[in-house]
Structure formats: C-alpha cells, structure tokens
Amino acid sequence: MLIVHVDVAVKPEWVDAFRKATLANARESVKEPGIARFDVIQRKDDPTRFVLVEVYRTAEDPAQHKETVHYATWRNTVADMMERPRESVKYTNCYPDDAGW
Amino acid sequence: MLIVHVDVAVKPEWVDAFRKATLANARESVKEPGIARFDVIQRKDDPTRFVLVEVYRTAEDPAQHKETVHYATWRNTVADMMERPRESVKYTNCYPDDAGW
Fold it and tell me: Residue A6 in contact with residue A65, Cβ under 8 Å?
C-alpha cells in the first residue's frame, strides 16, 4: 500500500468548517476502488492540527483521487482555511500486509 | 478512539532489526482487547524513519499495553537502535467513527 500522511494546520476560526469539508471528502473518498482507508484525525493537544491518513492500493491511485469532484471541492473549500501549505509524507506498510487495510 | 503516532528515527545499521522487533510487537499488540489497530509504516524517502500508528479503544488502554511482555521486550530490544528518543503525538478520530477501526 501507499500511505500518505497529510499534515494540516488550520486557522483557529476555520476548524469546524475545515472538519466538515474534510469529512465530506473522506466519506466520498472511501468509495474509490483505489482507496482502502481515508482517516481524518485531530490532535488532542492542538485542535487546529489534523492529519489525513490516506491509504492507496497502488502508486497510481493518488492521481485518480485528485481527478475526483470531491477532491476538487475539498481542495477549493479549504484553500483559505489553512495556516500554511499542507505537508505530505509517503510511507509503505510494514504491518499489516496489504490484506489488513 | 485514542490514536497515537509514534515517530521513530532508526540508526541505519539497525533498520532491519528494528523492523523485525517492531513487527513482532505489532502482531501481539493487535491481540489486546484495547487495541483496534497497530500499524507500522516506513517512509518511502527515508527508510530509517518509521511511524507506529497505535489505535486504542479508550484512554486507559495505552497503560495496559505498556504492562505487556511484548511491549517490554520491544522497548528493551529497540532502545539502542534509535537515533534519538521517539516522539508521540495523540489524536482523536474525526473519521471514521469508532466502529470503523
């Protein structure tokens, strides 16, 4: 699997709106055949910080995701809500194996 | 859920041994009733960097985990393999809800 952690810092006044827009995106994203999980988590010690944990089945699937209407809607909706550009880091799974996602 | 991301930088000569010890810990950890997932992922651009994604059902479950033999074995085995002290960040789940882990 290709796992992407997207680290987002949200302007405090936009936290609720960001969360709402991101959940709408997550609910549609998990319907994509190339996406095994699309978790959205929020830091306990700083609610303005989120991580999107995107689990893709193949290296080609992120590009497919970026062509969807829900991704474009999310990207445009949240563009001005972020404190700074979001940062992505790519990982591969050690555990569990591909069947465990 | 309480989600803990543990960020680990491993000394290059210990990467394979760290991975082996961490997988052994993960396989036992997922048998704990308080642990929903225990993913181990490795950075694509830097294989010396790992994240343990630990998903606990309640706030009390990390303490239970730290009392297990497999945790103690892992902690002792990897202590000298790390480049610097590991860093943990706690999150709560926005998506999916508790049933989705």
Answer: no
